[in-house]
Amino acid sequence: MSDAQGTGSGSRLRLARQARGYSQQQLAGMAGVTRQAVSAVEAGLSDPSLRAALGLARALGMTVEEVFGPYAPAPTVTATPLAPLGDERDRVTLAPVGDGFVAMPLQGSKVSRAGFLPAGGLVDRSGTTAGAGVPVRPIGPPRPTLVVAGCDPALPLLEGPLGLLDSPIALSWWPCSSGESLRLAAAGLVHVAGAHLRGQDGAYNTGPAAELLPHGSEVIGFCSWREGLALRPCSSRDISGVGDVASRRLRLVNREPGAEARSVLDRQLAELGIEAGELRGYGTEAAGHLEVAAAIAAGLADAGIASEPAALAYGLGFIPLTVEHFDLVIPAGQAGSRETQALLKILTSRWLLDQLASLPGCDPARCGERIAAL
């Protein structure tokens, strides 16, 4: 397996160096090799000589086998769950506490961050600025940050590998519909737009991206998942699709205009000859896949269109309607930025691919694949 996927010796050398806070030059000096040699090994461009391997391992306080040996999965540890677990594919946050480990299930409301996020600044009401901007007083110096818009709740997984780069990049995720994310990209307000919009030709994202970003863009794969009808378990008996939701007068929670989930619902209604007004709750809106699932799990609605990973995270019933391809659209004006170049480096990291694959219903096979240049 190649270093590009994050499992090779070069990746292990880089992660071990960064964990100890060494620059490439500092590690090279301690190991008695050149910085260029360290860079080449970390990039997977060359294998170290025996002398270099011994020196690098000694400088890191590790064995040669640990740094340069064959890749092996991390050993299993015993952890105490903080809440009851479900099936064997439960996703958890794992942390050492005392002499052992605790596992925190990523289920229901725990799959997202419900606490306060750190602020980068405060709006200065006493200040003035030109144009449509607002004056902001930073809390600490601003740092390089990749700004991504889109509705896939898996996007925050980018934060981990971005923070491990030799020049770390922070992540800021703006949750919104696919249509809105492309509009923000066209306005130059985000580095990357995440989208899963089906064009008139049936292909995903290339047509809408070409239309909304006339100055050009690149479409990079991220993941695929099924989109369908999420249902309260007690309401899912004998329900086979949207038609049954309408005929049984179940209450729906909808997505906002511009969301592909809403378009999926509208296409289903058109095929069945059902007017939108016949669906209870058609006018209610939730701002994302997890929000739809949370509303159903809380009993505020009986059904809604959401991704399969979101539905399964809340223990809901799920009826698939279509397979969605969620891609990352990079506007031409952002392609050369430090932030987007960092994104391209980490999209095929083994850690990210394993995290995406751990989400039930998520397929990361296309992650990092260049889909189209528009």
Explain how this protein is built.
It contains 14 helices and 15 strands. It is an alpha/beta fold and 374 residues long. Strands 6, 7, 8, 9, 10, 11, 12, 13, 14 and 15 form a ten-stranded mixed sheet that branches. Strands 1-3-2 form a three-stranded mixed sheet, with no helix packed on it. It has a two-stranded antiparallel sheet with strand order 4-5. Helix 6 links the parallel strand 6 and strand 7. Helix 2 (24-31) packs across helix 3. It is globular. 40% of the residues are buried. Residues 1-6 have low confidence and may be disordered.
CATH third-tier fold name of the largest domain: D-Maltodextrin-Binding Protein, domain 2
Q: Largest beta sheet, briefly?
A: 10 strands, mixed
Radius of gyration, in Å, reads 23 Å
Helical segment count: 14
Helix content: 25-40%
N-to-C span? 31 Å
Overall 3D geometry?
globular
Number of domains: 3
Let me know the average pLDDT.
89
What's the CATH architecture name of the largest domain?
3-Layer(aba) Sandwich
- Tell me the name of the CATH class of the largest domain: Alpha Beta
The helix-strand sequence is: HHHHHEEEEEEHEHEHEHEHEHEHEHHEE
| Poorly predicted runs of 5 or more residues | 1-6
| Count of distinct strands | 15
Instruction: Label the structural class.
Output: alpha/beta
